[in-house]
Amino acid sequence: MKLIILIAGGRTGSGLFYSLFDRHSQVCQLPAEFYYDDFWKKIKEIKSCDLIAEKFIEEHSSFFNSKKNTEERHNKLGEKKNQFFKVSSLIFKKELIKRIKGKKILFMSLLINIHKAYSLAKNENIDNKKFIMLHLHHRHRLKDFAKFNYDIIYTVRDPLANISSSFSGNYENNLFNKKYGPKKFVFMIDKILNAIYDLQKFNKKIFVIKLENLHTQKD
Length: 219
Description:
By secondary structure, the protein is α/β, with parallel strands linked by helices. The protein contains nine helices and five strands; from the N terminus they run E-H-E-H-H-H-H-E-E-H-H-H-E-H. It has helices at 14-19, 36-43, 49-59, 89-100, 107-121, 159-172, 176-179, 182-200, 211-216; strands spanning 2-8, 27-29, 131-137, 150-156, 206-210.
């Protein structure tokens, strides 16, 4: 399967874009951002397939019960914002173990098998799957993928709207005084000004999606 990595240029609607591929017949994806580089560092020395599966379920419990994902409001889905979803962790564990048991645990094969197992836990037909969409979000995480074949989707937004959203979003979530200081502001400006140039250094095919076009150019 072809790997496509989604990188966000700040408050650019990457989550909205990512959600548009949910349940796509040809796409394997998890329901939210997945920092696979961090997860790999935690499990790469583990030999037990059971422990790897359990570690994933433990660290990503909201993937299996969206009531637990309050940050991205997956606990308030639907028109009335009173819906949520559940995915069987038991089926996921069974399917993942079946695919990795007795094999050497490798970076890319594990990533693929995690996505296949999750799709099967959602009762999807993986025979039709051609792509894995990974919402990695941060460009610095790509360094661990350097030797692999993948394409990049990078989301952008009008710079002024991007900065404004970063302020208002943190105020709305009562995070401004806790998390949004000068360092975070500089981090956001760096994303807006430099991210696309940094991404070009990876020598991968890059597709740029503008948030405003998602609203105005639905076709």
